[in-house]
């Protein structure tokens, strides 16, 4: 049986659907029933139920964008930076291995030496730098809280998307925004992410940090062109002239734009679809109506 924290969120629901389809037993842990932010309560539950694995998808991303994190800093700091350490404390005491959903948004710009940022690179979009969002800063602190901890996976995703139209879907966001910023990024197909991260546990690959992104890089304009070609949305997409205009007109905080190197994950034998192929696949299978919720 797998424990799932944060099961009601965008990523958590994807885990619920996948585990349910696979017939794998899992239990969604809701704070209203068990305050898993308290290590002693979570430890006692783990010792009583003895799950084989725990997945943490709980966190604070801000709605409708990360700009909201600038206005709710206490909640953002606790959920993204403090909570991972508390979960680690409980899991270690109970002897339960686990996986933490992190973010590639702790990097920005181009990697020195070329290529995508690797797991061994020091994050450069954090509170230790002069230029970062509060959200990215807290996600970096969350990873620091887990540094050196045993029996934990840290899975970094980037700008998740999937085939179901919903507010958190990167593809849906592009279709709804009035104007867009063209940038080159890594993306993560949500279904691929869930399957790849669970494969990490099932195949018993070494614990540690993994960039879980679809291989390759893609620009905003490329994604928009694919959306138009698919027929899913035929609107006329408009772009900001520059990042400076975007920051002046539409954003309250800097944005992370970067490419991650996912070759460490691929070296374990867990291979995700190339990013352009993954976007095209989801657009072919586009659904306007979300899948029904699963009982847990």
Plain-language structure description:
With 296 residues, this protein is of the alpha/beta class. It is built from ten helices and twelve strands. The strands form four sheets. It has a six-stranded parallel sheet, sandwiched between helices. Strands 6-9 form a two-stranded parallel ribbon. Helix 4 links the parallel strand 4 and strand 5 (152-157). The radius of gyration is 19 Å and the shape is globular. The mean pLDDT is 94.
What would you call the shape? globular
Approximately how much helix is present in the residues?
A: 25-40%
Strands in their spatial order, largest beta sheet: 2-1-3-4-5-10
**Total E-strand runs:** 12
Main pleated-sheet profile: 6 strands, parallel
* C-alpha termini separation: 12 Å
Helix/strand order, N-terminal first: EHEHEHEHEEHEEEHEEHEHHH
Amount of beta strand: 5-15%
